[in-house]
Amino acid sequence: RVELPGIRFALHAGEIVGIAGLMGAGRTELCQTIFGVTPTAHGSISVDGQLTAINSPQDAVRNGIALITEDRQQTGLTLSMPISANVTLANLDGVIRNGFVSRPQEHSVAEQFRDRLRIRAASVDQPVGRLSGGNQQKVVIAKWLYCDAKILLFDEPTRGIDVGAKAEVFALMDELARDGVAILMVSSELPELLQVADRILVMRDGAMVTELPRSTTQQEIMQHAAVSS
Q1: Parallel, antiparallel or unpaired: strands 50-52 and 44-47
Q2: E-strand spans in 21-134?
């Protein structure tokens, strides 16, 4: 549950909640606050009913929260490194053996996620920078799932990927929700929100102004998003 100045909502396991709003409405900033990039002294965040102090991304990760940023190449991946290293980068403890990173273990973990998320690559030893945008996005998701994240914050998840890859990302998000992951999705593409989200929260001027059902329309969303304060 998130309670911040002008913002109050709950995110439940197994659902996808969309965040709509015009540029500058505060959508990305909301995700960054929840993930601890820009923590606030005002308000609260509860996970599984327990009040939680999120003062850094490390705090967020420890509480099962992950942020898939809108610029995956700059802030989500290390492009020169192989898929295997990117998948395990945020949870090296899982592949440390006798004080060193176990390459066979790292490779095994990456292979499991390659199969699970259907990442198209010649090998998990392939540099992630050589993958398509859609497959890069899957590697970012794999990295956070390996940290056992149960709350995924997707900021513009389909930016820079083609139509076919978008459909795959949406199908993956749906699978994750069915597995009990809670998903918060920011998108500037209203048709995407209407296609994927169970409900849509509309932001304006840094505040949450309304909640709309999946059956709403683009016009209704825009009416709430664009009304001047």
Answers
A1: antiparallel
A2: 44-47, 50-52, 65-68, 96-97, 100-101
Distance CA 210, CA 24 (A): 17
Beta bridge partners of 3: 8, 44
Extract the tokens encoding 86.
Answer: 């990117």
What would the pLDDT profile of 163-219 be if each residue is shown by its tens digit?
A: 888 999 999 999 999 999 999 999 999 999 999 999 999 999 999 999 999 999 999
Q: How far apart are CA 227 and CA 179, in angstroms?
A: 37
User: Do the beta carbons of residue 125 and residue 119 sit within 8 Å?
Assistant: no
Q: Residue 174 to residues 40, 180, 196: CA-CA distances in angstroms?
A: 31, 10, 8
Strands 7-9 and 50-52: unpaired
| CB 151 within 8 Å of CB 66 | yes
For 32-83, what is each residue's pLDDT tens digit?
999 999 988 889 999 999 999 999 999 999 999 999 998 888 888 999 999 9
> Cα-flanking dihedrals φ and ψ of residue 64, to 5°?
80, 20
